[in-house]
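Input/output pair, single chain:
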Amino acid sequence: MHGPALAQIARTGHGTTHAVVRVAGWRWEMKVLGMVLIVLGVVGLLYGGITWTRRDKVVDLGPIEVTQNKHERMPISPIAGGVCVVVGATLLLAGKRVA
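Output:
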């Protein structure tokens, strides 16, 4: 079988067949996702959200151009920040245990 999923088929004494799917390569993705969730959760807990500035064109008349800076904010509640930290830590720990 190609790709990250490897299948193993085991036969029991009763004539039944069981397929066990082991996912290889998920360890790295779980760690990265866990770290991203932890960072987002900490930012949400410390700052209450994420802010950024977006530049919009208001007027464009040939060589004359007027832009406006818009400050936008994505609020993250403390509960969601805490959940992100816990889920991220869980993914990091699970990533260490997956072979």
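The chain has two helices and four strands. The CA atoms of residues 18 and 62 lie 70 Å apart.
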